[in-house]
Design a protein that fits this description.
Helices cover 33% and strands 29% of the residues. By secondary structure, the protein is of the alpha+beta class. The chain has a single domain, classed as T-fold (Roll), CATH 3.10.520.10. It has an eight-stranded antiparallel sheet with strand order 1-2-3-7-8-11-16-17. The protein has a three-stranded antiparallel sheet with strand order 4-6-5, with helices on one face. Strands 9-10 form a two-stranded antiparallel ribbon. The structure holds adenosine-5'-diphosphate and magnesium ion.
C-alpha cells in the first residue's frame, strides 16, 4: 500500500427530521475514497468514530508492516498492533486454504511489476526468478501478537485484504451504535450494506456500464479485476493481481470477479476482500469449488 494523505475532501451531509438523522461523509483513506452513510440518531457519532478508527488502522498498518520488513531475516518476532495481527492471521488461514493463491508475502513481486503505479514494467525472467525466493506465506510466522519474516528482502502487501478489514471494523462500530441502515463503502472495492441496499456492479469491459444490479442485505461485496489497475505491454493486459506461484500477473480467464459474502460469516468483509483477489488467481472452477469445500456462505459473479 502506498502512503497517502488523509484528506477530507467531500462534503458532509446531515439531513435531520423527526428526531432521526441521516449522515454521510467521504474521506480518502487506505488509498481509496471511503464513504460512510448511516441513518438514525447516532448516525454522525457512528461515522465520526469510524473514520477515526480507520485512520488509526491505516497508521498501524504502515508502521507495523515496515517494522516487520526491517526485522526480516534477523530471527526476531516483532510486536504488532492487534488489528494488524488479526489481518495477518486471517490472511495466513486463507493462504493455506487456497494453496497460496492468496498470499500477503507477495510484496516483493508486486513492487517488481509496479502495476497500478505510474511506473509499471515487465521485468526480465531473471528478475522474476530471483523474486520468487522472497515470496511464500510459509516464511511468515505469527505468535503471541508478534510477526516474523524468515528472509531479509521479503515484503508484506496488505492491498488485497486491508480494506475488507477496515469495512469489518466500521461494521462493528455501526453495530455498537445501533445503526440499522447504512452503507460502508471502501471505494466500491469492498462494501457492506447495513440493512438492504441496491448496488450496481460495473461492466469490466464497458466503462460507465453496469453488468448487474444486486440487492445486498447485511452482507459484504468485494470486487477484484484487471480493468482499473492494469498495464498493457506486448499486446497483453497485465493485472495488478499477482499469481504468487509465478510471481507474475495472474493469467486469468476472468476480467472481474465480485463476491457476496453473507453477514453470518465471521469477518465477512475481510473474507470477501480476500476471496475476490484469490478467485482471480484460482479461476472460476477452483474458486467455486473452494466455497463449497470450505462451506463459506458466499456467491461469485464472474465477468
Ligand atoms: P483492490 O485493492 O483494487 O480492491 P484487490 O482487493 O483485488 O484489489 O487487491 C489487489 C491488491 O492486492 C494488489 O494491488 C496487490 O497490492 C495485492 N495482491 C496482488 N496479488 C495478490 C495475491 N495473490 N494475494 C494477496 N494480495 C495480492
Ligand atoms: Mg481483495
Amino acid at each position: 500500500m502506498k502512503k497517502f494523505l488523509a484528506i477530507i475532501f467531500m462534503t458532509a451531509i446531515l439531513i435531520s427530521g423527526c428526531g432521526a438523522a441521516n449522515y454521510e461523509r467521504s474521506e480518502i483513506l487506505m488509498g481509496t475514497v471511503v464513504t460512510l452513510k448511516a441513518e438514525g440518531k447516532n448516525s454522525q457519532a457512528a461515522v465520526d468514530e469510524s473514520f477515526k478508527a480507520v485512520a488509526e488502522l491505516e497508521k498501524n498498518i504502515l508502521s507495523d508492516v515496515k517494522k516487520i520488513e526491517v526485522a526480516a531475516g534477523n530471527g526476531d518476532f516483532v510486536k504488532i498492533s492487534p488489528d494488524v495481527y488479526k489481518i495477518l492471521q486471517t490472511a495466513q488461514i486463507f493462504s493455506e486454504r487456497t494453496g497460496g493463491a492468496f498470499d500477503v508475502t507477495c510484496g516483493a513481486a508486486v513492487e517488481l511489476w509496479n502495476i497500478g503505479t505510474e511506473n509499471p514494467r515487465v521485468p526480465t525472467e531473471e528478475e522474476i526468478s530471483a523474486v520468487k525466493n522472497f515470496v511464500g506465506f510459509e516464511h511468515l510466522h505469527l505468535q503471541n501478537g508478534a510477526a516474523r519474516l524468515d528472509l531479509r528482502g521479503m515484503k508484506i502487501n496488505l492491498g488485497g485484504v486491508a480494506k475488507g478489514y477496515g469495512v469489518d471494523l466500521v461494521r462493528k462500530i455501526f453495530a455498537e451504535k445501533k445503526i440499522q441502515n447504512g452503507l460502508i463503502d471502501f471505494g466500491t472495492s469492498t462494501i457492506f450494506a447495513v440493512g438492504k441496499k441496491k448496488i450496481g456492479i460495473k461492466n469490466s469491459r464497458a466503462e460507465n456500464e453496469l453488468t448487474a444490479i444486486i440487492e445486498l442485505e447485511n452482507s459484504a461485496l468485494s470486487t477484484s479485476g484487471d480493468y482499473e489497475k492494469f498495464f498493457i505491454a506486448n499486446n497483453r493486459r497485465y493485472s495488478h493481481i499477482i499469481d504468487p506461484k509465478t510471481c507474475a500477473p495472474a493469467a486469468s480467464e476472468i476480467s472481474s470477479v465480485s463476491v457476496v459474502v453473507e453477514g453470518s460469516q465471521k469477518n465477512c468483509a475481510t473474507v470477501a476482500d480476500i476471496l475476490s483477489t484469490a478467485a482471480f488467481v484460482l479461476g472460476r472452477d477452483s474458486a467455486e469449488k473452494f466455497l463449497i469445500e470450505n462451506k463459506i456462505p458466499a456467491k461469485f459473479i464472474f465477468q
